[in-house]
Amino acid sequence: MQPIPPPPVAHPRAGGVLGALLDFEQAPGRYPVARREPALLFDQLGTVLRLASNRAVDGGTASAPRARQAARFFVRTVMLRSGADHYTLLGLTPAATPEQLREHYRMMIRLVHPDFVHAEEAWPADAAARINIAHDVLSSPERRQRYDATLAPPRAQPQPAPVVPPRPRGRGAPPKRLPARRTTQGVVAAILLLAGLGWWVGGPRRSGGSLMAQAPRPDKTVPPAGPVTAPPALRLEDVRPTLDQVLGALRSGRGETVLQVLHQEWRSHPETTRFVGDFNQRLAGRTVRGLDEVKNQLSRAADGFVVDSALDFRLQNAQQQDETLRLNLQSVFQVQQGSPVLTRLVAQP
Hints:
With 349 residues, this protein is α+β, with helices and mostly antiparallel strands. It has two domains: 15-151, Orthogonal Bundle (Helix Hairpins); 236-348, Nuclear Transport Factor 2, Chain: A. It has helices at residues 15-26, 39-43, 45-52, 65-79, 86-90, 98-111, 127-139, 141-151, 180-202, 236-250, 270-282, and strands spanning 287-301, 304-316, 322-336, 339-348. α3 packs across α6. The chain starts with 14 loop residues before the first helix and ends with a strand.
C-alpha cells in the first residue's frame, strides 16, 4: 500500500503582508522589532521570505520587483539582525517541519550567496555562517530540543494562598466583652478631651482674637499634589534593533540608504544631509566587504540620548586591494510615546 502524501502547505495571502512591508521600508524606526513588531510580518515570516526569494505566493506568479525589494530589506534588517533567534532567522515557527526547514534554508542561503547577490545589495558578512548554524541546530532533534528549552524558561509555579479557618458564629458563640484595660483608657481619653476643650474656650485670648482655629503658615512652599513623572529611562537594549538597522543600511556603502531608518521629520535635516555626503565621500570608489562593531556606549544628552559607536569597515578599492576605515558614529535618539526613535546621525572625526 502506497503511503498517502502530505497535503500541500498553504501559503498566506500576501496582500496585507506587502502593505506592511512597504510601510516598514518607509519608516522602520517606528517599529520595536525586539517586541516582534510589526506583528503581521513576524506572524508571516514564511510569506516574507518567499517574496524576497521571488517565489510564488497565493498560488500566483512570482513577486514584483517592488515587493521583492521591500521583503529583502526586512530580511536583511530584521531576520538577520544581531540577536535574532534561529527560527526568526530562517522565517520559521517552533512547529516547523523538517521539509519547511529545508525549504527555508535553501531560500535564505541563496539570498546571501555571492553568485546571486545583486550589485546594489549588501548582506551581513556573517549571514551565511549564521544561516548554517541555525540549520545545523534545528535539523538535529536533540540540539533543537535543547535550544527550545533556552527560548522558553520554566515559569515559577504560583504558591497557594494560606487557608484561614472561619470564626465560629451562632447561638453557642460566647458574647464579646471589652477588656477592662481598654475601657479605662477610653474614660481617661474622654476626661482629657473635655479638659482641653474647656481650656480652649475659657483660656487667655489676644485682643481682637477669634475663636476660629488659625491654620499655621508653612515655612516652605508646598508643591502641588499630583504624580511626579520621571524622565523615561533608556537602555542600550532598547535601541539595539534600530542600531542593527543602521548597520544593515551602512553595509550597502551608500549613505542614502540610512534615511529609511531615521525618523521621517529628520530625514531632510541639515545634519542628515551632511552625514550622507560625508559618508559617501569617505567610501567613494570602494566596496564594503564587512563591518564590525568595536564599541557602543549610551549616554544622556540635553535633547535625548546618544549612542557613541566605533565601526570598522572592511573595504576593497578599485584596484582590488583591501582597506580598513574606522567610523566614529553618534546616533541621537528621542523617546516618543514610550519608544525610542532615531533622529540624527553624526560622523565624528
